[in-house]
Amino acid sequence: MMEIRSFFNRYTRSLAWLWACFVFSQGSSDANGLDINEQKVPRTQEDLIAIQDALVKNSAMVREATVSISIGDGFGSGVIVSPDGLILTAAHVTAAVGKDLTVILNDGTKLKALSMGLMADTDAAMMRIVEEGSYPHVSINRKDDYELGDWVFCLGHSGGFDQVRGPVLRLGRILKDTDTTLYTDCKVIGGDSGGPLFDMNGHLIAIHSRVNQGVVSNLHVPMREYIANWEALEDSKFLGEGAFAQRPVKGSGFLGIGSSDSDDGLRVDKLLKDGAAEKAGFMVGDLIRKMNDEPIALKEEMVKALEELATGDMVSFLVIRGDEEVSLQVKLAEK
Amino acid sequence: MNYLLFISILSFGCSICVFAQTRLPSDEMVNGKLVSAAFEPQREILQQSSAVIYTDEKSRIKSVYGVVVSDDGYILTKASEIEGKEFLSVRVGRDLFEGVELVEVNGRWDLALLKVNSDITFEPIVFSESDEVVRGHWVISNGSTLRSKRRVRVGVISAHTRIIHSAGSDVVLGVSLDDKTVDEVKIVKVFEDSGAQKAGLSAGDIIREVGGASIANTTDIFDSLAGKKDGESIEVVVLRGDDEKTFVVEVKSAENKEKMVTRNDQMSGEISNRRDGFPRVIDHDTPLSNVSVGGPLLTLDGMCIGMNIARASRVATFAIPALELRALIEEMIPKK
Q1: ipTM summary value
Q2: Per-residue pLDDT, A230
Q3: What is the CATH number of the domain that holds A128?
Q4: Out of A164, A233, A275, B166, which could bridge A117 as a Cys pair, Cβ 3.0 to 4.6 Å?
Q5: Rounded to whole angstroms, how far apart are CA atoms A268 and A284?
Q6: Total structural domains in chain A?
Q7: Nearest chain B residue (CA) to A26
Q8: Can you give the pTM of this predicted structure?
């Protein structure tokens, strides 16, 4: 009897201790160095003012780095993370590797940009401004120390770029973290995709991805996903199978030339007006010698090589024009 | 045996801990009960100075909220949510008032002024002296309501205060227009039996003003027509040759009135029908709905910086700024 009772006491004490540890570890998180995340909920006017002050100060700091991205008929958002214009955004915004995009700064300035790598399964993507300049940028929270209940704020060009309005600011808390997705009650909408989610120090912690039913169910891709795949993103790799981007389809690339085998080799007879080849500088009469460093002697060899390539792929050609060797870079169009 | 029982209780206990913490409890969300409790001082102001507007016979179903603007019972609310309704009653604090009169409507701003017939002295809202609106500041609005108790919904100022152009208008002048020349809108054709034809407008006229507002493009015309109803009149000033001429045009209902529902609208929950065509609005992220606009917009200091006029989308609620509201109230309250 005695033995069981002391056993019981030891275990309830352990359980109590376990609860205590747990409660204290939630409470005393020095997550972002701010008191506001240490409280379960704000209680006083002072608590509310602390949140407000942090929000006003940090949102002003990062606003200029929140950009709008023009994608054909639609818009997305992104955030500049380096002074020379590296941008983090969502995979379903860039939708492809090596794609030409336009970035719009808050003052309306339009800049040329190029998409880099993406993760088709988690919706992470990277791109960069190709025009030289020194751009407003944000710091990334690399500590992965954000927790449930942390106060966060989001910026984005909701519904598309609106210069008079500016990027839209919203406040929320982290509701759930499933490793590749952060859930918050910071409401986002079409046009916000790819835009930034910040902690209350103004450091980047996630990128907006999508919403679920209900105004408070907003999903973002956490920085840990970008950090884990940084090199691949920088190397413009298309990673993962998923809903957020479609892999380029082999054989979908279109050159836009009419050619035929002649005694002098593969000759360009015709050029499609405004086609990929014409835009790259091909001329009627050019004799094609090499494609992506592989020698080409016959038309069927070029056709076979093109079957491996997709819309948007860059192809280098070496042609003979009169007495000269000319190098050409072609970006394949859509069939 | 008991040893195993204790181990299983322990593990079960632990797994409850882990399970409970995979999602933030809803009470702790930005608009959860526990966070709302911190806004009690502002809630008390809404308790006294906001109104619940009913348009059903039994005064049970809230149509929209309102703002108490005078101590003798003038209340401001959103006109398009109450117009044409048979019953109108108002609750302020715990008290229900059935003697309510619609005094005046301003279509441009979608405002309606109501008067409660009662001997009670009301506590009107106190407007902020300053027109300053700071992005990131907390704002407090009416949330849901009990019969006796008003509740809050909170958010922050999201973007610059600005004009919201009309997406299209419910009424037309009856002309087709050419605005390809910069800053100039010319009448190309005047339609048969239209208000424009009856008033005397002609093809070739350059439209200079509509409803007192100067016109540079067709968007300006839509903005001027916002809130106008079938049969109402509007002044149109045109340049004909070298002369400026003024005409009074009776507007008519537009034929294709269906507003396009965008994909963003679909993600937005219950948005207001009239949510555009406002000369100036404050933009905040408070998650209201079409039936919870109409009340005051307060800041932490308890001052009223505006009146919620439209739930525009999933991410935006619009409010008329106090600066314009003060002038509109002055205009709308009948002079003694």
Answers
A1: 0.84
A2: 98
A3: 2.40.10.120
A4: A233
A5: 5
A6: 2
A7: B21
A8: 0.80
